[in-house]
Task: inverse folding
């Protein structure tokens, strides 16, 4: 476990409501440099809302989000990306009409602020660097294939290469293994872990597969009904009574979480 | 204006509002359930006026008039049901662009059918039995039929409201408006529901038309005017909202009535005749509402409906084969003046084709790679054409300067309109671009003192040597080639990739730092600029320009050109524009019923040939193992 003094991301008392539903309530935590932090919790716990606030898709009602000490709450996703925060989505999003390498080149073009160039062909921009990134995720063979032809697991790898294009300091991964087979899952997370350790990138990820979480996360935070209920390493989380209650339930919590689940 | 005069105008407005509401309510109902913007709705209204006229004159009397109105509503309802069963069922899952085009094809076909059945002359119906007189209100005389209309709008609103809230049919409509997939999953027979909703909507349009024959003659131009009005009302009120439609109908009718009521106002150093700005005012209201509340006054955000478009191939640089082909075509065109010495008409045709190519390529630029289906590209053509013509007329500018100023004016328009348009997407973007184009058209049409009104501007001839058609042809060729190559260059550059990135996945594009709106805004501006070149060239080629040439038909022509060639290809718009312009100049000149022919072409295209000429050729070529 590696917690350094300078936190890459810090959430302070973050809250967000939709109508009368408190999706996220008073959540605070931080991520240290190079830390692999898992955010878990049952459906409707507020994980995606948290992610969308950090990423800039939603503005928080109250609270602060600090990226390396700088407040980023309410900034647009593209501005947050420029500060070095990469993102992968629960349902992988790539540019379907482009080849695999063009997807990565697009991100590199944007990173170097060349989006508005009108003359030199895009294909000649950053091809070498894009190939390098694809090689690191094991996709260089498929570089010139249309990205929409790829198998889903490969799309996730391409998305990872895109997310790494701006040398992020923090990577937000919303259910990186959703929709993948059990074998592929471990492969992808191992890859992510290796890449981020090499580069000292911090990762915040959500995950439903508990074996992945307990095998790879440096630290785990648990959300339930919008609140942060636990924060610690794998052993501490396993032994946490409240977490057990949320996941395995007493009769009482089950009734409660069922009514919460209906709103989610 | 005195208070009495003002109140009288308000009453006048209310009676027009009823008419507007009847057309709009049907359009709104149909959109709410089927998610199809039925461009043929104005045509159903027009059919209503003609059919009711026939009943009222052929049978006559009370039965002929009032019974005819009821019968008309039923007949138009049945026509609507037939349209739904025969045509719309095939395209519910098609991209919305195709739905809009298919229903526009119906506009053309129905218009020619009416021409064939009733002839080109205006037909004035009899006055309504029982409502022939007038009453004196506020010192002025108001026809009693207007009072009847004032009442009928709220009555229909009430009847619709009760149907929607108190009956099973109404519950199904409301449920389908919120989530039609869920309604289908619950085992409701969607086919029957859709057909009956379409029939009901059509019947309302027919009723609206039938009620108008006592006030206005049946006329072949009614379809597009009624469509424009209904559009504005539905968009302002919120698509799918019936009370919204009434509210919007009242607002629009009152704004127009007040424009007429205010009349000429002297502001000291200049005067404005407000009665000339009714059309502009109407579309201005719509534009403002779309900007402030994109889903209308009482509308709600519509859930995205899955459309199944063929996924697009990555773009590849031209192969040697394609390059060689391009050079050959260019060489042949350069030699055309020599080949055409015996037949000058060939060069005129060539100029028409090249202008169409510039127009279609610039539209494709935002429509294909940008994913913005503009239904108002004629606006930038019009700004270019009128810009050039007016500079020549009022300031006696030489052609060179006018041809440079024309695209700049179009650019200014595109920057202004595009800034708003890129904030919307899908069918709402289509509506807003259409509204902007109508504003340009209406301004040109109604500002007679400056633009010549419906007569247009004449005497815009090019100076020597360009008065010779070979010289003008070569000038057009150079500009067209430059436009095509330049736009192509942009598409292969980072900017073009960013455009496509924003279209493919706005979420991902924003997450890698691309400002999608700004990219699309700039794309819109570039397309407007290039389109302005086409407009300027057109004005000098024809020697004149009239509002007719920049009407909605030109916007639709552009869409057809792009689709005919293939929206997912880069060479498609060139081929599509050429084929279309040739067809228009040759085949369509031969027949009085060119609209129906055009409609048939569009329907054929949409139903059987959605890839377009180049798209179909490319996939055939790939199947044979070749690369293009």
Result:
């Amino acid at each position: 476990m590696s917690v350094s003094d300078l936190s890459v991301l810090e959430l302070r008392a973050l809250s967000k409501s939709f109508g009368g539903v408190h999706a996220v309530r008073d959540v605070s935590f931080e991520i240290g440099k190079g830390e692999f932090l898992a955010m878990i919790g049952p459906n409707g716990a507020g994980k995606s809302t948290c992610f969308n606030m950090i990423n800039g898709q939603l503005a928080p009602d109250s609270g602060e989000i600090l990226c390396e000490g700088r407040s980023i709450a309410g900034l647009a996703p593209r501005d947050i990306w420029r500060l070095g925060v990469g993102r992968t989505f629960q349902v992988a999003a790539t540019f379907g009409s482009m080849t695999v390498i063009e997807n990565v080149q697009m991100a590199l073009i944007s990173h170097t602020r060349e989006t508005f160039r009108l003359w030199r062909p895009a294909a000649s921009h950053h091809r070498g660097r894009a190939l390098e990134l694809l090689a690191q995720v094991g996709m260089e063979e498929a570089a010139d294939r249309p990205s929409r032809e790829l198998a889903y697991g490969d799309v996730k790898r391409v998305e990872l290469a895109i997310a790494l294009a701006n040398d992020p300091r923090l990577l937000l991964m919303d259910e990186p293994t959703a929709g993948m087979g059990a074998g592929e899952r471990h492969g992808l997370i191992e890859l992510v872990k290796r890449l981020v350790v090499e580069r000292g990138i911090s990762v915040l990820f959500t995950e439903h597969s508990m074996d992945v979480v307990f095998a790879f996360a440096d630290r785990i935070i648990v959300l339930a009904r919008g609140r942060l209920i636990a924060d610690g390493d794998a052993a501490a989380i396993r032994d946490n009574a409240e977490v057990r209650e949320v996941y395995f339930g007493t009769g009482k919590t089950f009734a409660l979480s069922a009514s919460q689940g209906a709103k989610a | 204006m005195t208070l009495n005069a003002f109140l009288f105008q308000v009453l006048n407005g209310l009676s027009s509002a009823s008419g507007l509401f009847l057309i709009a309510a049907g359009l709104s109902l149909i959109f709410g359930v089927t998610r199809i913007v039925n461009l043929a709705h104005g045509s159903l209204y027009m059919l209503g006026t003609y059919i009711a006229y026939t009943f009222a004159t052929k049978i006559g009397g009370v039965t002929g008039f009032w019974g005819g109105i009821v019968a008309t509503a039923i007949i138009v309802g049945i026509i609507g049901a037939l349209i739904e069963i025969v045509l719309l069922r095939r395209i519910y899952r098609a991209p919305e662009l195709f739905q809009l085009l298919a229903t526009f094809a119906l506009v053309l076909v129905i218009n020619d059918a009416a021409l064939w059945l009733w002839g080109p002359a205006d037909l004035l119906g009899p006055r309504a039995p029982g409502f022939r007189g007038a009453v004196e209100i506020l010192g002025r005389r108001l026809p009693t039929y207007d009072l009847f209309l004032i009442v009928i709008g709220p009555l229909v609103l009430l009847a619709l409201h009760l149907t929607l809230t108190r009956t099973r049919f109404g519950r199904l409509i409301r449920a389908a408006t919120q989530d039609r997939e869920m309604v289908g999953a619950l085992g409701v027979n969607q086919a029957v529901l859709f057909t009956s909703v379409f029939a009901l909507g059509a019947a309302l349009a027919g009723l609206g038309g039938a009620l108008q024959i006592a006030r206005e003659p049946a006329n072949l131009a009614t379809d597009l005017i009624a469509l424009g009005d209904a559009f504005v009302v539905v968009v302002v009120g919120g698509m799918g909202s019936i009370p919204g439609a009434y509210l919007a109908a009242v607002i629009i009718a009152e704004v127009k009535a007040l424009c007429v009521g205010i009349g000429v106002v002297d502001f000291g150093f200049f005067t404005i005749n407000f009665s000339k700005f009714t059309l502009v005012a109407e579309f201005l209201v719509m534009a403002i509402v779309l900007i402030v509340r994109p889903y209308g006054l009482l509308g709600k955000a519509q859930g995205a409906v899955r459309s199944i478009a063929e996924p697009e191939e990555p773009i590849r640089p031209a192969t040697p084969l394609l390059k060689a082909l391009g050079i050959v075509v260019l060489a042949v065109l350069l030699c055309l003046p020599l080949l055409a010495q015996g037949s000058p008409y060939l060069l005129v045709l060539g100029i028409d084709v090249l202008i169409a190519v510039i127009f279609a390529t610039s539209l494709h630029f935002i429509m294909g790679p940008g994913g913005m289906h503009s239904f108002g590209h004629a606006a930038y053509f019009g700004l270019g054409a009128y810009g050039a013509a007016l500079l020549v007329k009022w300031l006696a500018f030489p052609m060179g300067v006018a041809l440079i100023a024309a695209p700049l004016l179009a650019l200014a328009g595109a920057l202004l309109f595009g800034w708003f348009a890129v904030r919307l997407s899908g069918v709402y973007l289509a509506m807003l671009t259409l509204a902007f184009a109508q504003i340009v058209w209406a301004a040109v049409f109604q500002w007679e003192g400056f633009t010549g009104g419906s007569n247009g501007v004449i005497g815009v001839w090019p100076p020597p040597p360009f008065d010779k058609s070979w010289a003008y042809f070569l000038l057009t060729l150079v500009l067209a080639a430059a436009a095509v190559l330049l736009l192509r260059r942009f598409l292969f550059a980072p900017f073009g990739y960013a455009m496509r990135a924003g279209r493919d996945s706005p979420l991902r594009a924003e997450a890698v730092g691309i400002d999608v709106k700004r990219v699309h805004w700039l794309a819109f501006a570039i397309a407007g600029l290039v389109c302005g070149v086409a407009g300027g060239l057109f004005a000098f080629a024809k020697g004149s320009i009239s509002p007719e040439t920049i009407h909605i038909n030109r916007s639709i022509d552009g869409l057809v050109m792009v689709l005919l060639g293939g929206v997912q290809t880069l060479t498609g718009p060139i081929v599509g524009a050429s084929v279309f312009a040739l067809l228009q100049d040759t085949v369509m000149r031969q027949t009085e019923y060119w609209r129906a022919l055009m409609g048939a072409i569009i329907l054929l295209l949409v139903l059987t040939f959605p890839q377009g000429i180049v798209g179909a050729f490319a996939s055939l070529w790939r199947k044979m193992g070749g690369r293009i």
User: Anything to note?
Assistant: The interface with chain B takes residues 55, 76-78, 81-82, 87, 89, 93-99, 102, 105-107, 109-111, 114-123, 125, 146, 148, 162, 165-166 of chain A (CB under 8 Å). The first strand of chain A starts at residue 7 and ends at 18. Chain A has a mean pLDDT of 87. The beta strands of chain A are 7-18, 21-32, 36-40, 62-67, 70-71, 85-88, 170-173, 202-206, 219-224, 227-232.
